[in-house]
Amino acid sequence: MTFKYNHPSHSKKVVSAVLAGMMALSAGGAAMAADTTETGQGQNAAVQSTAAPTGLFSDIKAGYWAEKHVYKLAYQGILLGNNGLFRPGDAVTQQEAITMAIRFMNTESQLNTSTAAALPTNMQVGNYFKPYVALALQLGLVDKTEEASSDVSKTTWGQKPATREWITKLLIRSLNKDAEAKAQNNQSTGFADNANISDSAKGYVNLAVSLDLAKGLENNKFNPTGSVTRAQLATFFSRGESLTDTKYPNTSTGYVTGLKDGQITLLVDGKTVNYVVNSNTPYFTKDSETRASASDVKLYTKVLIVGSAGAASYVEVVDAKQQMESVEGTFARALSGNKIGLFVGENYETYTYDENTAFMDQNGKAIKLSDITVDSIIEVQRETFSADKKTVVIRVKSGIVNKSDSGVVAEVVTSGKTIKLVNAAGATEQYTYTDNLIIRYQNRILSLADLKAGSTVKYTVKDSVLQTIELNQGVEQSVRGTLVEIGGNQSTLMYKRDGGSLEAKLLSEKPEVIINGIQDATLNDLITDANNGDKVELTLNSDDQVTRIQVIGRQMEPLNGATVVSYNSKTKVLTVLDANKKPYVFTLDEKTKMDYNTVKPTLAGLESLLNDGRKLDLTYVGTRALSVKVIYKYEGTISNIDTTNRKISLLSGNQTITVPYTTAAAVEMYNKSTASLSDLKVGDNVAVTLGTNQDVAQKIALKTVAQFEVVSMESNGRVRVKSDLLTSQFYVDQAVLTGESGQSITPSQLTAGNLINVTFEGVTPKAVQVVKRTLAEVTAVDATSVTLKQFNGATDKVSVSGPVKVVKTGSTLTSLTNLTVGDRVEMTKDTDNSTRFRVLTVMSKQFWSYDGVGNQILVKRETTSDMNYRFALGSNVFVHQGDNTLSVQSLRDNDNIVLYLLNNVVMEIQKQ
């Protein structure tokens, strides 16, 4: 970068050289003067480099991608900025990078600054950098022979921008892994621009990638001659710290033994060190680039702190696992010498405690040792990171409790007969209860179902069992009965309570009405009748008002296949005959549900169809028609196809329906554009759409279920799918869509990769169900269950009931015992609701290269005629060696790998 100043002797501006101190900080933390080049007048300009304010570089904002690495190295004294700026995007020169490497290795004490360092003539550097470069040559960080061919025609060697390839060498050598890198020089890097990487650098690139210190760029390129920014270099060296045992004077790594406001206590090499923290202290975790919070630091976890004078400037959680072990036993007695005795199984053991040991009851409340009674079950927790294994917590797990208290209900678990409460002191308690538990509000006895989480209560406990719970305020409760009447102004409701009396309730302002099959139901959709009214569950608020009405049963009668005799549009009276010519008279009203061949039925539209002879399906209560459906379609399974008399018979429910057809009747089925009656057979599930006069079949649609993988969602509810590598598309905006758990979803919630079962009526999707798919390794199997280890490491034992399909080596088998431990499988539900395991194809290969553009890998051919050497990768391909997850880019030429494929797509790569 360029700096300008006004010389005292004249007003002419003089340009200084690149500021050396951007990457140079003295061991004591003081700022260093930058070396400068000579100006045209033969004068030098000295520019001072200064450390950034604590915790801040004004050009490194919170959330910046390299923030973590910049601040750690800045606080460690490996780098610093200038006047509060870090300039993360500036290119790093070779002399600056070497200075940083020497400080990264903590070898500044070996610098020889007493005399001018002798350097090769082509390696010109600023005066300040000469000792650093001389030491780098001595330590082998740079090779004199390699640098002899360096192009210095445009700038000096020191001020030449460092390339990615050159920096990679420097980084690996500073980690003392030069020999390890050179051993890999004859291997391809796997990058698309491998040919552009110098042969002498390929091993360094390979090693840097495998150590996760360097990564490829867009289109799987390494860009060896590209420049390196200050932020990138900070990231390289910061990641490298985990691979070296170099100690920095102001950096400590240890286990957290104390946390309180404004202070973290670490146990470092057997000694306790206290660090002050405040709201400006930056927190990070090892596995994330973004900032963490103070709450992410837990007791007994491994933490790195950079700081001086007892103040933490940087905190990083290195290992978030708490280093603790637990022993459970029966408390025997307290012993002298700060010891306790307890029986662990059949053994009597003693454990030491000190002033830092916490004693707690089963609810996490602090107690004294004297509060622990003999025969209480206690848990002793000890840290495991020191030889002393100090006792950290002694917790009572069970003991006799007799108390009265107040608090808030947290959870009611009826299966285990336990209730969890948060007491007045804020501690969580859990107690069992019996059928004798009394729950009341004022003078009213409530049921357990009325006890809700969040209720404020008073409670009593005897012998660790809840005796009484008294609510401080009313709660919601539920009652069931038969709906008799809704008041004329819809403010009251009368119902006959199950098992007895007639009761009246006030309605809340807008009570919720739930009726299965009716969306956005209202009070007008309810059926009221003294004998045949809706069976309902009413929800009452604390003021005893009805806030919710859910219909749980209806007494309506069906009348299918009725024939219209007459309809009077003025009186709304409909007369019909059933199949036995028995007459019925019904009245239609604004509550009658209508259904005919239209999306939005109206009463006027229905009335135009109620002519003599029209076929209807009805439901009714007394003489009131609840629903009227004009029969325009029959659904059922084919029981007979009479081609001679041109009739098709369906079994629909408990009745057989026979419909004539003409030669013009269309047959529609998914995936066959020229279907005919000959494609149908007895037992097929179909929908027969009738002609206008309901006398002949106009269309016969076969109902089928097919399984697809979603490729993409497009506009207007259209989905693109594939099955057996063939793609197709259809609209699902009018279909019923459900997710993996049966919940309703919208088309926009379908995503690429979803496995879906689609129910077609002919070629029209009527229902779409997202199918859960699990890719995993079989670790155990028997006749009724299989244990699966998923790619994320989670293990789950799956009990399998009902039909099973095991698709293996081209055959479909019907027993779980056809699975083998070690098989990789995809577990799904098939279209017939059977549990299906597709066993992945296994291939052992030698890795060749990775094609990032096509997302595929190439393997070594086994023979010259072997054309099966290119494999597509799944979108979330799992690459690993044992339990260590890898990236595809980390694989190297000639690596032995095992491929697991599903439909010719690699789902897992196991490096041997």
From TrEMBL:
Signal peptide (residue range): 1-33
Domain named SLH: residues: 53-115, 116-185, 188-251
Keywords: Signal
One Pfam family this sequence matches: SLH
Tree of life domain: Bacteria
Record-given protein name: S-layer homology domain-containing protein
Species, as recorded: Paenibacillus cucumis
